[in-house]
Amino acid sequence: MGADTFAPDVNGAARFAERLAAGLVERGHDVHVMAPAASRKHGTWKEVHEGAELTAHRLRSWRWYPHDWLRFALPWRIRQNSARVIDQVKPDVVHFQSHIIVGRGLSIEAEKRGIRIIGTNHFMPENMLEFTLLPKAWQDWAVGLAWKAARRTFGRAEAVTTPTRKAAQFLERHTGLVGVHAISCGIDAHKYAPNWEPRTENRILFVGRVTGEKQIDVLLRAITLLPASLDVKVEIVGGGDQKRNLEHLAVQLGIADRVTFTGYVTDEELREAYHRASVLAMPSIAELQSIVTMEAMASALPVVAANAMALPHLVHHGENGYLFDPGNPQDLADKLRMVLEAEPDDYNALKARSVKLIKAHDITRTLDTFESLYRGQRVTDPVTESIPVILPD
To answer: How far apart are CA 123 and CA 125, in angstroms?
Structure first.
């Protein structure tokens, strides 16, 4: 398995790769992960992820300083490193999680050796542009080059996957690929216990990277539009380059005493945050699935999310939460009020539907489907989505 970002990195792609690798180990597979080293130390050793031991091939990496933690493998050595690891491991299958550096090298060398290749896309241009330092005028050109590179790398794979049907259509449209499989990242819902205790406060939770495309500023502005009687508290879990700017914005908006930035937390602390919350707010416009939203649903949280990219696949308007117009603080505030002012029975119904809807994303189905792809078997994409028609208010 090849990844440009892997634990201890904290993002959706890294979390998916970690859970997939661990799940495959638990099923008896010998799993090797090739990824950038998380520090200057590089080499091959055993690592434990999600309680499962796998072999990690950590490549020499450089820190990308425009980003607050990102390290990348050296692109001019990726083919040499890929050839070395493949010849050492002699894998039956190569599954890359990104086309940018590691996936490119692994796919080229695996193709030369006749090894079956599976590719998964987690890439969204919005997730990268703000860290490239490119002038605005050059960004469209850079995005075009990135999609051409994606077409070349994914074109080497026998099967290409991405987390949702909308994300698959997005990838096909931008690369010209056909037959992209929509396979949920999956979640082990048993690790997230619903909390049915009556609410004692109105607490809005955001979890994720604190970066521009997450549009956390929209959430903070929405808070100022909520009635003071709701006495809303906001918890922002995660780290990123925009944390300081958002802290300043909270001060400017006069809500700093109601907003807590917790930074990175442990898995146990994250589960506690889900239990404390009344609702998850997900204002991001660049989610190919959103593992965070799935974790919140498994914790029986209603969700208010931007009506963008793949979020409508998880948040069914009026069932387990509400969708709002992306970038619109007033609409976000209105939808948050619908949850926070709901009668107890209606609020519990939103919670119950979150738990019900997440069952379709059981990671067991995800593992079954990828095992079939690895074996070259024909697969039918798991049905996990039902996009509601949203009528005007």
So the answer is: 7
